[in-house]
Amino acid sequence: MDAEVMATLHAGQPAEAGKVPANVRVVDFIPLDALLPSCSAIVHPGSFGTAQNALVHNAPQVVVPNDLWDFHPRAELISPDPLLGR
After folding, report:
1. Is the dihedral of CA 38, 41, 42, 46 positive or negative?
2. Bridge partner residues of 6 (DSSP)
3. d(CA 8, CA 22)
4. Phi then psi for 64, rounded to 5 degrees?
5. Using CA atoms, how far apart are residues 31 and 56, in angstroms rounded to an integer?
6. On the CB side of 51, how many CA atoms lie within 13 Å of its CA?
7. Which of the 8 DSSP states describes residue 30?
């Protein structure tokens, strides 16, 4: 792929990334306000904050859902109304 890729991860995750292609740089957290102005696009799991930052910086987005998107439907299996316990 003819692209420079930067993967920003949470503290400790870069060590878990292992070997990555030469065009990929794995780093600890970088504020999106500092990174997005130089990006051609962003790939992310769809969190509100990340999507909002991408919109502010007019960065094209590719949203890749993760297992947390499934949280609310699973909560409904436990109780149809978690607040009332019905």
Report:
1. positive
2. 25
3. 16
4. -115, 105
5. 14
6. 8
7. -
Query: How confident is the model at residue 23, as a pLDDT?
Result: 92
Fold of 5-78: Rossmann fold (3.40.50)
Blockwise average pLDDT, block size 10, the chain, 86 residues: 84 74 88 93 89 95 76 59 56
- Token pair 């409904």 in the structure block, residue: 76
In the prediction, which pLDDT does 29 show? 84
* Domain range list for the chain: 5-78
C-alpha dihedral, 11 to 14 to 17 to 19, nearest 10°:
-170
> pTM, whole model, 2 decimals?
0.67
- Single-letter code of the amino acid located at 76: E
Q: Which residues have CB under 8 Å from 39's CB, separation 6+? A: 57, 59
